[in-house]
Amino acid sequence: EAVKNAFATKNVIAQNAVAKSLGVSRNELAKMYKQEQLRTLGAEKFEAVYGKQELAALKARNAGQDFQTH
Q1: 6 within 8 A of 14, measured Cβ to Cβ
Q2: Which of 1, 8, 19, 21 could lock 26 by a disulfide, CB 3.0 to 4.6 Å apart?
């Protein structure tokens, strides 16, 4: 819930605090949050909220991760 609130309010200080408490960088936390948003919202709603470029970037990151794990 703290992660969701920090990103929903765009509060960078809160994002940094949550990330630090989890032992990750804010950028890593943002990636994880957006990945979860994609799973929760689905591609169509995610694109409506974050835009086509962000959806494409997230899909590209996911493809790269899939490639590295196989």
Answers
A1: yes
A2: 19
Q: Specify whether the CB–CB gap between 31 and 22 falls below 8 A.
A: no
**Residue whose pair of structure tokens reads 């943002």 in the numeric block:** 30
- The tens digit of pLDDT for each residue in 4-53 reads 899 989 999 999 999 999 999 999 999 999 999 999 999 999 999 999 99
In whole angstroms, give the CA distance from residue 5 to residue 49: 16
CA dist 16 and 18 (Å) reads: 6
3-state secondary structure of 51: coil
Q: State pLDDT tens for residues 45-67.
A: 999 999 999 999 998 988 876 65
Element at 35 (helix H, strand E): helix 26-41
